[in-house]
Amino acid sequence: MQEHQPMAAHGGMPGAMPMAGGGAAVAHEITHGPSFALLRVDLQPGQTLVSEAGAMVARSSHLKMDVKMSAGKKPGFFAAIFNIFIAFIRKIMGGESFFVNHFHGGTPGSVWIAPQMAGEITYRRINPGETLILSSGAYLASVGDIEVKLKFGGLKSIIAKEGAFMLKVTGSGDLWFNSYGGTTAVDINAPFMIDNGHLVGYEGQLTMNLKSAGGGLLGFMAGGEGLVCEFNGTGRVYVQSRNTASLIGWLTPMLHG
Amino acid sequence: MQIDIGYRPAHSMAKISLNPGEQILAESGAMVGMSTNVSMTTGMQSKPGGGLLGGLMAGLKRALAGESWFRNTFTANGGPGEVLLAHAMCGDMQVVQVPATGLHLTSSSFIASTPSVNIETKLQGFKGFFSGEGAFVMQANTQDPNSQLIFGAFGGVTELVCDGNLVIDTGHLVAWDSTLTYKIGKSGGGWIASFLSGEGLVCHFQGQGRIWIQSRNPVAYGQYVGGQLPPRKG
Lengths: 257, 234
Known about the structure:
Largest interface: A-B, 37 and 44 residues
Distance between the termini of chain A: 46 Å
Oligomer: heterodimer
Structural class of chain A: mainly beta
CATH topology of chain B: Double-stranded beta-helix
Shape of chain B: globular
């Protein structure tokens, strides 16, 4: 097992850098990581940045912003109805927004993007044939031909009330995802377990099983670890250093009604 | 005076090293620690010659703007002294020299300044009510070329240079040069699209000058975390 600190964790990354097997990345910079990361994307004419609704911090005035539904690209009336349905499901189940914003312009310009939650922004180039599974809510922005679909997490995830829906990212282009706290990329080639609440994403060739952390039913109820994700195969898992459910659990007793 | 900011950007703290007799004016509640030879006086900081009534009015305006009624003045007596200052929120702090043309600040971002800086709370009027930043902004003015001002933010602070036009989300705006003009408006093409985009209202800046933005939106953060809290009982 090897650990990689993604470049973004060091608060910045060179602009256009060539990536193996997938052309050049769009010019961008991530600053203020890992606690309050901010993304700046420098768009050239013809490039379109897609971001989660509400994530824009600032932009050059001449860049146009179009609101689109977060699912599907197929034309036609029935496809549109279907897209509304899918976008609605995503909003309810996936924690993702119903709408996404498209930024583009006829002359170069910049867009600044930030997530709502404290934490890091991680960049990843998605190459054709690659699949990245993200926790719901982890998608921040993308450039290029990136498709984000809902993935049902299975019956167990419903019982666990966590990860009922994940996001399946495919295509070819640049992807940015966010986490609560810092992000660590762990390359695994042997079975590996992480706490459900700390999972940000994993590569699609890995298999993931939700299980109790050990200690049977009692461990599940009292161990405080809840469910863990067990990964098998060879690939990369992204882990976040904080857990939102733990924050809520810590805050709740201190807020007196 | 020497100002050093440590623990950036998440939990920044300012260390102000005062020469003998030097003063710094700070928002009440911002003091973390100070040398024993530093004295603190509390006042309402009206305009010079404003008198008691002027002070009361200045304090009242600040209270309405969500700032504190009082401000504290720290003075180093009989030798150099240190004052440590921090913001209430997690985030970055920035030291700027107030230009002769003035500086605008959102109302809760002021932390401290040299006494030569005159800070006024101004009613933004109509546009303030809709900007999410409250109805008030602060305006800092000075003739002193060595003046310094410290402001705080939620998340990291980035300085943007506006050369013509920039659109800033109102929840991410911290401070800007008074040379800039701005209008509050919709972010996208139409009102419905702007609403759906989740961007709400934005500030359209025009002109030449600096804008400081914060990398997190306190209201959006509050809604994200608050939305997951169990409902209050009773």
